[in-house]
Predict the structure.
Amino acid sequence: MAKTLFEKVWERNLVTQETDERPAILHISLHLVHEVTSPQAFTVLRERGVKVRRPDLTLATIDHSVPTLPAGPSGELPYVTDAARNQVETLRKNCAEHGVPLLDLGDDRRGIVHVVGPELGRTRPGMTVVCGDSHTSTHGAFGALAFGIGTTEVGHVLATQSLLQRRPKTMRVNFVGTPSDTVTGKDLALAMIAKIGTQGGTGYVLEYTGESIRALSMEGRMTLCNMSIEAGARAGMIAPDETTWSYLDGAAGESVSRDDNLFTDEDAIFDAEIEIDASAVKPMVTFGTAPDAAIAASASVPAGVEGIDYMDLEEGQELTSVAVTTVFVGSCTNGRLEDLRAVGKVLGGRKVADGVKMLIVPGSEQVKRDAESEGLHSLFLEAGAEWREPGCSMCIAMNGDRGQPGDLVVSTSNRNFKGRQGEGVRTVLASPLTAAASAVAGHIADPGEYL
């Protein structure tokens, strides 16, 4: 019987079949943990006298609460609140108590959870990957079934290395045509979400297919899978190919065993299918307060869209007339080396516009080292941008990196709802190329003018 990629991965990791009375039980290949959603889960384990079942299949890192500013003269990090410091200290204690490997501050492998998993070669095709973080879907770029879970489920996986799950439906998202050089994985993601809406993928695992997907780097594929959640999907997946295996060879430092059966069979049936013409996609930005309010950066604000009042925009207004106060480059969506190189292409020999603050935050210590070895950090600083330490930073605005009421932030992150980047802040989602072009222009800009 012909099967989809999802069906093959699901069945590989199935412990007990689903029935009408109860969900299926899935074995979890990799459990990623960070400081924000794990404290309560570890507390429950402690109260019940239960240990972590498979510390070797668990990996913890510090990313959400940690400051991206360097330590002061005394060596103390500038935590924005005591609660943020306590989250970090609590994770240290919990990992030490249960023998869970922790990428702590000072560890040269530390970074944003969905950057370091693939970077260290821990994410592999055919695996199930979970984390108490919705953008775990990132790992689906490797042909893994990866999704976010709640705090209660975090505790369940820590204790059992398994998870109760109802089997989702499947949707193929087929990109046809060849996009222009200024269109990235982020633009494809925003075009897809604009087409199907923020609830269009609800109940589905999306599989991305087509020549334009095959042409994406692993970084571009991770960005696309990362944004699956913004379409309401349970997960996003891309079948592994030589691009995938080559990336994993580099991450592992050796040749990784290939699995030639991780693809959708030719006659497999999806529950739903959509097609998107990638050649028609242009550099995209959002203009409302949800990711599906997205159009070309060179377009005008359409009529009848909720959220434009909050964004202080008018129907028919050209987006290139919208002034920018802050530009943020980073996050698990676009904080990788390829993203920073893209920014460098725009910023090279140029300056950030007067009155614009630009924050560039690498997704991991490895990304930071690689960027600095290429001299990107010097280019950023010469252009007038700030170069920070790795962390989630302004994506979620819980570590002190946030905008001020009324600011308009062009952000390479993944969410633009009201207050996501600070109270009263207006967020415009964009690719690194578009964000960098907007920083130079001082207003929303199409990157084609700067390349």
Q: What stands out?
A: DSSP finds 14 helices and 19 strands in the chain. The first strand starts at residue 14 and ends at 16. The chain has three domains: 5-165, 169-280, 291-450.
